[in-house]
Amino acid sequence: MADIPSVPPYPPELMRDVAKRRTFGIISHPDAGKTTLTEKLLLFGGAIQLAGTVKARKSARHATSDWMEVEKQRGISVTSSVMQFEYQGHTINLLDTPGHQDFSEDTYRVLTAVDAAVMVIDAAKGVEAQTIKLLEVCRLRNTPIITFVNKMDREVRETFDLLQEIEEVLKIDCAPITWPIGMGKTFRGVYHLLEDRVLRFTAGEEKRSEGELIKGIANAQLDELFPLEVGKLREDVDLIQGASTPFSLGDFLAGKQTPVFFGSGINNFGVQEILQALIDWAPPPQPRVAGTSGADTRLVQPSEAPFTGFVFKIQANMDPKHRDRIAFFRICSGRYTSGMKVKHVRAGRDMKLANALTFMANERVLMEDGVAGDIIGIHNHGQLHIGDTLTEGENLGFKGIPYFSPELFSAARLRDPLKSKQLQKGLQELGEEGAIQVFEQEGGNMLLGAVGQLQFEVVAQRLKDEYKVDAIFESADIHTARWLTFPDELTRRNFEREQSMRIGKDVDGNPVYLASSRYNLEVTMEKWPKVGFHATREHG
Ligand code: GDP
């Protein structure tokens, strides 16, 4: 369950503050309406004054988020950001994920830092490819999912069909909470199945509005207002109440069932219900598994007093004139206070945390107070890597922040061979940042691995702008990479001797097998049954 355990006794103020946090991300296929929904959620939360801010950022490529030339040229959001706002006494952290599929690796990591997700489905299109992939990632941690079926103001698919498709393709039970009345030009509103009321749809709402409520499905007012649609509504509701599984908070929290809402983001319709569901049903910050200094793991509870957390994303400074970077850090327990001293576990060093940032829409402000579930931005010059844990107490290492085996490879070659130091430095830093994966082969060759082609272009551009290095990327004859683990030193040495040409090291020095083909990988795995070949690696 989502409750915060009360034993052993945790600091009561901390428990109270943690219980008010909700940290979530929005997953969707590009164009389903994620940006629009984000904007409306912020509007409800009072984080932005006018509709259009997020949109403007997306289209006009605003300075704060679009520091990167590539991003400007392409008109896509390469980096993800964090937005914090207040709603009904709760502090909500919305972690934005890049929608472009080339950056799915980044998106995956952002999803390790949330406690819930809102899935946006385009009602005309149904379940699309990117949604399937993202939901799989959520499933790795059984993240609870709230579903928003968007664009009901358009000619869309039949509601029962849509739900069936979600259940079949995404393998998650649907519990409709609202039910649409009509669609497109005859979209009249939604019936709330749990509250037995109809919320009337009016197009083009600028700001929040309670809308007009009609109580009771048998209400004669409905017959007057929607004579053509009310019959179908009553039939549908009879059917659902007989056939579909009722909402179960336990199943939702276990990631087995998703409450489904219908609406139209652009018309600000159905958005408030999503916020309400986040507050009423989505879990507060959850305990996290961490490795301890022994071989054991334990659950770190969000209300434990010592401050802990992990880095899930690193972003180059939004101001390209400065080389420092911002590590996005999810607090898992304790409280952030400016000037506190923490231990950087991987490096075995102490560091002072001051001037951490929090993110209000597209503004960055200094963080004053943060607890589990909050995201802080920490300035650093490359000391912090993705997956790093910072703690105030015992040595811990949070688990579950993955690197995925890249699908595309290329070798970096310099136009000017005298710049090899800069190239190495640039690639090392961009690799640590997670912009791309970098493997160093014997003889100092730098090999790049990416999930999407666009990552190479971003890296080439950044090498030029930030490191003054003009590099050419040539395709490399590599099919896939596998992280290696060895049962003992002797096996390692023998393997490394035989396979030296096919071994590389990632930015953290871990050995990787670079297979030339699927067949090559299979043969090598067969020959070395005791060596572990892993398609993902956890950071840290
Ligand atoms: P994203 O790519 O998922 O972030 O999608 P956007 O929020 O940018 O929306 C994609 C397109 O769908 C835009 O042209 C939006 O104006 C439009 N859109 C978003 N929500 C709705 C909606 O509720 N109804 C209609 N008709 N269009 C919408």
Automatic annotation (TrEMBL):
<keyword id="KW-0342">GTP-binding</keyword>
<dbReference type="InterPro" id="IPR038467">
    <property type="entry name" value="RF3_dom_3_sf"/>
</dbReference>
<comment type="similarity">
    <text>Belongs to the TRAFAC class translation factor GTPase superfamily. Classic translation factor GTPase family. PrfC subfamily.</text>
</comment>
<dbReference type="InterPro" id="IPR031157">
    <property type="entry name" value="G_TR_CS"/>
</dbReference>
<dbReference type="InterPro" id="IPR035647">
    <property type="entry name" value="EFG_III/V"/>
</dbReference>
<comment type="function">
    <text>Increases the formation of ribosomal termination complexes and stimulates activities of RF-1 and RF-2. It binds guanine nucleotides and has strong preference for UGA stop codons. It may interact directly with the ribosome. The stimulation of RF-1 and RF-2 is significantly reduced by GTP and GDP, but not by GMP.</text>
</comment>
<dbReference type="Pfam" id="PF22042">
    <property type="entry name" value="EF-G_D2"/>
</dbReference>
<dbReference type="InterPro" id="IPR009000">
    <property type="entry name" value="Transl_B-barrel_sf"/>
</dbReference>
<dbReference type="InterPro" id="IPR005225">
    <property type="entry name" value="Small_GTP-bd"/>
</dbReference>
<dbReference type="Pfam" id="PF00009">
    <property type="entry name" value="GTP_EFTU"/>
</dbReference>
<protein>
    <recommendedName>
        <fullName>Peptide chain release factor 3</fullName>
    </recommendedName>
</protein>
<dbReference type="InterPro" id="IPR000795">
    <property type="entry name" value="T_Tr_GTP-bd_dom"/>
</dbReference>
<keyword id="KW-0648">Protein biosynthesis</keyword>
<feature type="binding site">
    <location>
        <begin position="150"/>
        <end position="153"/>
    </location>
    <ligand>
        <name>GTP</name>
    </ligand>
</feature>
<feature type="binding site">
    <location>
        <begin position="96"/>
        <end position="100"/>
    </location>
    <ligand>
        <name>GTP</name>
    </ligand>
</feature>
<keyword id="KW-0963">Cytoplasm</keyword>
<dbReference type="InterPro" id="IPR027417">
    <property type="entry name" value="P-loop_NTPase"/>
</dbReference>
<dbReference type="InterPro" id="IPR004548">
    <property type="entry name" value="PrfC"/>
</dbReference>
<dbReference type="InterPro" id="IPR032090">
    <property type="entry name" value="RF3_C"/>
</dbReference>
<feature type="domain" description="Tr-type G">
    <location>
        <begin position="19"/>
        <end position="286"/>
    </location>
</feature>
<dbReference type="Pfam" id="PF16658">
    <property type="entry name" value="RF3_C"/>
</dbReference>
<dbReference type="InterPro" id="IPR041732">
    <property type="entry name" value="RF3_GTP-bd"/>
</dbReference>
<feature type="binding site">
    <location>
        <begin position="28"/>
        <end position="35"/>
    </location>
    <ligand>
        <name>GTP</name>
    </ligand>
</feature>
<keyword id="KW-0547">Nucleotide-binding</keyword>
<dbReference type="InterPro" id="IPR053905">
    <property type="entry name" value="EF-G-like_DII"/>
</dbReference>
